[in-house]
Specification:
The complex is a heterodimer of chains A (189) and B (111). By secondary structure, chain A is of the alpha+beta class. Chain A is 27% helix and 23% strand. In chain A, strands 1, 2, 3, 4, 5, 6 and 7 form a 7-stranded antiparallel sheet that branches. The radius of gyration of chain A is 18 Å and the shape is globular. The relative contact order of chain A is 0.20. Chain B has 4 helices and 5 strands, in the order ααββββααβ. In chain B, strand 1 and strand 2 form a beta hairpin. The termini of chain B are far apart. At the A-B interface, strand 2, helix 4 and helix 6 of A face helix 2, helix 3, helix 4 and strand 5 of B.
């Protein structure tokens, strides 16, 4: 039905980048980021020093201050649009490798899969002008007050995604959240 | 729910490749919709058509309209492109999950 040609399924403004997409992951670092930061907050923007809160296995809150990517839709991420902005934590790849429990080939294979974006819940972000090699985790999303986010984090944006980069983010988000359940899932009616 | 109905529902929850699964969902023109305990109704679903209609006994005809169809098209195309674009796209292994879990334990601190 599709063949291997994705052009027909690309949005109009991403079609000019079809060749680059076909060569993925080669050249990924050349088209993932926007060359300029816009005036608005966009889905996929990366900010530094974002507070994250999770509930741990003991039922209590755990916190960290990390880089974060806006996952909320661009419309919802504007000031006074929604009460909260949904943010995904970003991990520095070097620090992750240095503190990994995996070893040897297992670690090498894991990092290779990660940097080739083959792991569904992780999105690799290559190092650039304002950012080091790192990855986004869609499995640890956090809601941050929109008022706080725009007041305290809004000026700390590091990078914004290009048209093509944003499309790639949507591709990964769509796959991660809408992939079919396991055959083991015995859901009730 | 009878075993027969369980079996009828099973193909929708396969762990098969997303492409195969989504095609299966897309081309299916007739399905059964669960309405409540013991209540099932036949539904004609035009998955990517302009409307998605379901009828059930004693209820008015429900029409979700174009928006539902467009949303379905959108996620279906995005997720399908993901598999074409990234061959070998997969979930984390148990060892990889544990590795990430241990890393986060180091990064996050209790309040």
């Amino acid at each position: 039905m599709f063949g291997d040609d994705i052009v027909a399924y690309l949005p109009e403004r991403v079609r000019p980048f079809a060749d680059q997409l076909r060569q993925f992951p080669t050249g990924y670092e050349k088209w993932i980021y926007s060359t300029a930061l816009g005036s608005e907050t966009y889905q996929g923007d990366v900010f530094t020093a974002v507070p994250f809160v999770c509930v741990d296995e003991d039922g209590g809150p755990v916190i960290a201050e990390l880089l974060g990517m806006v996952v909320s839709n661009t419309c919802d991420a504007q000031p006074n649009q929604g009460d909260f902005v949904l943010i995904a934590p970003i991990t520095d790849l070097q620090d992750y490798k240095e503190n990994a429990t995996l070893r040897g080939d297992e670690l090498d294979n894991h990092v290779r899969a990660l940097t080739e974006n083959k792991i569904s819940n992780l999105m690799f972000l290559p190092g650039g002008q304002n950012i080091r090699d790192c990855f986004v985790d869609f499995g640890r999303l956090c809601s941050v007050s929109s008022e706080y986010f725009h007041r305290e984090c809004g000026q700390r944006r590091l990078v914004s995604l290009s048209w093509c980069g944003h499309y790639f983010l949507l591709v990964k988000l769509a796959y991660h959240f809408t992939r079919p359940e396991s055959a083991d899932a015995r859901r009730g009616p | 729910m009878t075993e027969a109905l369980l079996e009828a529902a099973a193909p929708h929850a396969t762990g098969a490749v997303f492409f195969d699964w989504s095609i299966g969902e897309a081309v299916e023109s007739s399905s059964r919709i669960y309405l409540g305990p013991g209540l099932w109704a036949d539904a004609q679903i035009d998955f990517f058509g302009d409307t998605l209609n379901a009828t059930d006994p004693g209820a008015q005809r429900r029409s979700f309209g174009l928006q539902t169809s467009e949303l379905a098209k959108n996620w279906w195309q995005l997720a399908t492109v993901a598999e074409v674009l990234i061959p070998g796209l997969r979930e984390m292994t148990l060892a990889e999950k544990e590795n990430l879990r241990q890393y986060y334990k180091r990064v996050y601190r209790k309040v």
